[in-house]
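Notes continue from the previous slide.

Worked example: a multi-chain complex. Inputs as given:
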Amino acid sequence: GQQLNQSPQSMFIQEGEDVSMNCTSSSIFNTWLWYKQDPGEGPVLLIALYKAGELTSNGRLTAQFGITRKDSFLNISASIPSDVGIYFCAGHNGGSQGNLIFGKGTKLSVKP
Amino acid sequence: DTGVSQNPRHKITKRGQNVTFRCDPISEHNRLYWYRQTLGQGPEFLTYFQNEAQLEKSRLLSDRFSAERPKGSFSTLEIQRTEQGDSAMYLCASSRPAVGTGELFFGEGSRLTVL
């Protein structure tokens, strides 16, 4: 089946640093999304991307839909302790609007 | 929005028992989804309802699993004859009509442990 490869799997950063993570696939997706999950909670949508090449920001977060439609990246600028959590990329290319393929996540830990 | 509500939050059961989880979506959301998440993995799609109609089912949804949304509001997910491999977090999500693909609101999940 389709798989999304997220990297890195985990990262430790100093507060105030910028963070970059990405997601790749061997298949084309029509939609890319980024979700964040805190311990004991469900995922929360951060950014949705609908067009190849699209660059979208949400506060300190910026994400891009790759031109090839097979990748996406998420940047977090000036990280703060509450950025800790697991970040998931998700793609959609068919089926119902909620039938998403999720990556395995990037676990972000911030040193205060 | 009061958020997507799921219960129970935790369930421990013995292998072979039946379990049922309930999901109450955000009130104006007509679309409802069930996902399963195991440790260290992302959520995996199980099934989708639009109003009371179950429109899509993943091959992950074996014949021991059944989901219903009888009046187009809350939904239940039942697992019969549970197996240890069913241990996971079961997430429910909902979305509004005419919203962008994949823009889901997730509940906090129901964690199942099968002994």
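Summary box: Chain B touches chain A at residues 4, 31, 33, 40-45, 48, 50, 55-56, 58, 91, 93, 95, 99-109 (CB under 8 Å). The two ends of chain B are 36 Å apart (CA to CA).
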